[in-house]
Specification:
By secondary structure, the protein is mainly alpha-helical. Helix content is 36%, strand content 7%.
Length: 91
């Protein structure tokens, strides 16, 4: 993806913030970030790009990609869903 195609919001993020958002997109919820990652998580939280687990939510993990965070990810990350293989039934 060319640099000119990236959104201004994405370009405004630091490399560490971009890596964290890509990680959340790829792996899902972040269980418990290490102490070295909390500064990045807090900065993304302040921008509204991640959200904490809601109380009473049984979902595993503490930090999640917010809707706003998923919107600013470059399109190449949001590629089409991979085709699922469903084997034909045997006679």
């Amino acid at each position: 993806m060319a640099e000119s195609e990236l959104s201004p919001a994405w370009r405004a993020l630091t490399p560490a913030q971009q890596i964290m958002l890509r990680r959340l997109e790829r792996e899902g919820a972040l269980p418990s970030p290490g102490p070295w990652e909390m500064r990045t998580v807090r900065s993304l939280l302040a921008r509204g790009l991640v959200r904490p687990r809601r109380s009473g939510d049984g979902t595993a993990g503490l930090w999640f990609l917010s809707a706003k965070g998923s919107r600013i990810l470059p399109r190449s990350i949001h590629g089409p869903e991979p085709a699922r293989f469903s084997p034909a039934p045997h006679p």
